[in-house]
Amino acid sequence: MKAVIMAGGFGTRIQPLTSNIPKPMIPLLNRPIMLHIVELLKKYEITDLVMLLYHQPAVIKNFFRDGTDFGVKITYVTPLEDMGTAGAVKCAEKYLDERFLIISGDLLTDFNLQKVIDFHEENKALATITLTSVKDPLQFGVVITDKQKRITQFLEKPGWGEVISDTINTGIYVLEPEIFKYIPESENFDFSQDLFPKLLEKQEPLFGYTAKGYWRDIGNTDSYREAHHDIFKGRVNVKIDEPKQDLVGKDLRLGTDVNLDDHVTLEGTVVVGDNSQVFEGAQIKDSVIGRNCTVEAGVKLNRCVIWDNVYVKKGAKLNDSVLCGNVRVGHGVVMEEGVIVADDTAIGEESYIKRDVKIWPRKVIEAGATVTGNLIWGEKWKKSLFEGAMVKGLTNIELTPEFVAKLGCAYGTALGKGSYILSGRDAYRSSRMLKRSFIGGLLSAGINVRDLTMVPMPVLRYKLRSFGEVGGVQFRQAIDDPASTEIVFLDGDGLDFSSSMGKNVERIFFKENFRRAHHTEPGGLSELPQVMDFYREGFLHAIDKAPLQKKKFKVVIDFNHSAASQLLPGILTSIGCEVISLNAYVDEERGIQAMTERTQSLSQLSKIVATLEANAGFWLDPTIEGVIVLDEGGRVYEGAELLPLMVGLMLKAGEKGLFAVPVSAPSAIERMAQERGCAATRTKSADRAMIEAAQSSEVILAGTMDGRFAFPKFQAAFDGMYAIARTIELVARCGVPISKVMAEIPQRAFLQSRVPCVWDMKGGIMRKMSEDSLDKEASFIDGIKVHFGEDWALVLPDQYHPYVHIVAEARDPKTAQKLLTDYQKKVEQWKKELS
C-alpha cells in the first residue's frame, strides 16, 4: 500500500519557525517532524511513499533523497501552483492506482494506522476519514457520523452554538483510486471544503473511523512547544536518535562527542545533540539541545527547545522558549515563557525578553534591552525607545496603533493626573491614525489633551511657551524614510524632551506599570481654535516690517505640501512681500517627498527664482523646522554653506550678540563674528543642547548644520517659517543681494564623511582617538576635535546610528582631504584592533 505525505504548506501560522525551512522539516526532538511520520508509516509496513511538495521543496528533497537511508522508497510530486489539498493529490494520480493513505507531514500522532485501513476495507468505503476527540473542536472541522460510522454532516470550524460533537477530522484519510473522478483537473480543490461534501451529496460510501491514541496538529508555535511537553510527560512515544544513558532516575539522551560537565544539574528528559557542550553549573530540565551547541556555566533551561548551532552564554535564564538555528544569547539574558527566537539572531547581554514575544530572523537585540512586542521588520530592537526626544519606527509595522496607545499611556503615567498636554500632527493620514491611538492611551491615564490637529511644529512649540500645558507631542512622517513615523516629545517650555524625561517614560513603558484612571475620570479631549492667531500675532511683533514695506520683495517658496502653506503666505503678504507659492496645498495621500525627488524640486525652484527675477527662494522642509535658501540667481545654499550665510546676513544687518553653533560648524563663523565685535559659542550637536544655548539672553541665533535656525527674539526653537521671514528682513536691511553677502564670507575647504561602526566599538574608537590626541591640541565638547594650527579634524560618534562622523577643515582642499583620509584610515585601523 502507498501513502501520500502532504508536505507543501507555507507554515504561515507557525512563523517565525518556518522563516527559513518548510514546516514539515521543523525539528522535533532533533529530527524533522516529517521523519516521525515516515517512521510511523514504516511501523505499519507502508514504505512506498509519495511526497507532495510545494513550498521550499529542495530542502525536503535534499534531506530524504530517494528514501533509501530511511528504509523507504520516495516519489516526489511538485505542483506548479497551489492546487489545494485534493488538487495537489490529483497531480500524483498516475502513481496512485491502488488503495492509498493520505497523511500530513506536520502531525504528531501514534494512531494505529492498520486499524484505520482494516475499517476502510471492512466497510467497502470509497473514502475513510480518521477522526479523534478533542477538548476544543472550534478550530477544526467537526464530523458527524451515524451508528454505522457513515458520515452524515460536516461542520467547518463551528461556533459553540453549532457544536454537537467533539469529533474532528485529523487529516488522515484512506482512499480508493476511484476518488480521482470526483477531483477536477488543474483546479484548486480541497478535501474538507470540496471533495468530501461532494461525496456526501452523492451519497457515496464515506466513513469516519474514530482512532484511539495521541494526535496533535503542530499548527502554531504554542502547539510546537506543547508537543515537546507531551513527549517529556510520556503522552506519546517517538524515536529519539540520541542513545539513552544508563543513569538511575534520569532520562538523559546524548549524541556523539557531547561534552557534558559532571556538575550539570539535570531533571526530567534532557536530549543533547552531537558535538554540543554543556558547562558546569548549568541547570537543565525537560529540554532539547541541538547539534553543535554551547551552553555555558550557570545557564538555566526549563522546558526549552534549542536547534542547531546555538550559543547560550553564562547566567542566561530561559523558560519554555524556542531558539532556532545560529542564535546567540548573551550573558544574563532572561526569556519568559513562550518566547520564540528565529534563525541568525543575536540577543545582547542582560536583555529581557517578555512572555510570548516572537523575534523574526536576523535581528539584533541591543544589550540591556527589554523586548515587550514581536520584532518582525527592521534589524534591531533597541534598548531605548527614544532617539533624543523622538520615538521613531516603521509605520503600522513597528509603530502600530496598539504600541502607540501603550506609549501614550506610559507618557500619561509619567505626568500628574489631570495635567494638560498639546498634541499635533503633520498632514498625512498615518500620523493622524497613530496620534488618535496615542491620545487614547493618554486619556486612559487621566491626562487632558488639547488637540491642535494638523499644525506646524513651530506653532505647537510657541503655544507651549504660554501657561497651561505641561508638555506636547507631534506626529510626523520622517524626511529620511517616508515609511517611518516620528513622535516628537516636548516639555512644558516647548523644548525637546530631556534624556531623563525619556528614560522615565521608557521605564514605565517596559515595566507596564501604567496608571489607569477610574471609569468616571478619564482625561478630556478639546481643541484650541485660536492658536494660529496667537502665533501670527507674536510672529509679526518680532519682525521689523519697515525695510520690507519700503522695498517690495519677491520670494518663491516651495511649501512641500505642508501645513505652513496655510499660514505663512498670509503673514508675508501682510508685511509687504510678494509670495509665489509652490506645492502650497495639503495632500494627505502624497506623503513625504523622497530624497531623490528633493534634488529635482530644488532644480525646478532654482529655475523659477531666476526666471521671475525674485529676490530669494526657499525650500521649506516638511517638518517646517528647516529651510534651504536660494539667492537671486537661483544658487542653492544648504548644509555647511547655509549656516555661515545666515550669520553673515545678521552681521551685515548690524545685529550684535552671540551665535550658538555646533562643534562641527565651519570656523569662518568665529572669524566673521570677531571682525564685527561679536562672538560664537560652540555647543553639542544634539537639538536640545542647541536650544538650551539659545535661551541665553546673549544669543541672537542658534543654527544647525542642516538648515534649522532658532531666533530667540521670537522663540528659542527651530522655526522654518520665521527663518524665511527673518532672512527676507535681513536682506532688505543689508541693502545687498544674498549672493554678495555670500561672496564676503571667508572661504575654507570643509569636508565630511562617515565610517560604519558597530555600537560596541564606539567607546573603544573614542578611547583610541583620545590616546592618539594626547600630544595634540584638542577639544572635547562633542566628540574629539583636534586642531592643527588653523586646520582641524573632528571624530564624532553618531548618537543614534552605527556610524562615526569625520569632519575636516583646512585652508585648501588638498590639506582638508588629507586630514579626512588620515582620520578615516585611523578609525578603520582602530576597528580592526578592537575586533
Within CATH, the superfamily of the largest domain carries the name Spore Coat Polysaccharide Biosynthesis Protein SpsA, Chain A
Q: Main sheet?
A: 12 strands, parallel
* Proportion in helices: 25-40%
For this structure, what is the CATH class of the largest domain? Alpha Beta
- Terminus-to-terminus distance: 60 Å
User: What would you say the CATH architecture of the largest domain is?
Assistant: Alpha-Beta Complex
Shape: elongated
Low-confidence parts lasting 5 or more residues at pLDDT below 50?
none
Mean pLDDT: 90
Number of helices: 21
What name is given to the CATH topology of the largest domain?
Spore Coat Polysaccharide Biosynthesis Protein SpsA, Chain A
Characterization of this structure:
- With 835 residues, the protein is of the alpha/beta class.
- It folds into five domains: 2-217, Spore Coat Polysaccharide Biosynthesis Protein SpsA, Chain A (Alpha-Beta Complex); 240-381, Hexapeptide repeat proteins (UDP N-Acetylglucosamine Acyltransferase, domain 1, 3 Solenoid); 395-529, Alpha-D-Glucose-1,6-Bisphosphate, Chain A, domain 3; 550-577 and 589-743, Alpha-D-Glucose-1,6-Bisphosphate, subunit A, domain 3 (Alpha-D-Glucose-1,6-Bisphosphate, Chain A, domain 3), CATH 3.40.120; 749-834, 2-Layer Sandwich (TATA-Binding Protein), CATH 3.30.310.50.
- The strands form ten sheets. Strands 14, 16, 18, 20, 21, 23, 24, 26, 27, 29, 30 and 32 form a twelve-stranded parallel beta sheet that branches.
- Strand 51 (777-779) and strand 52 (784-788) form a beta hairpin.
- The longest helix has 22 residues, at 813-834.
- The mean pLDDT is 90.
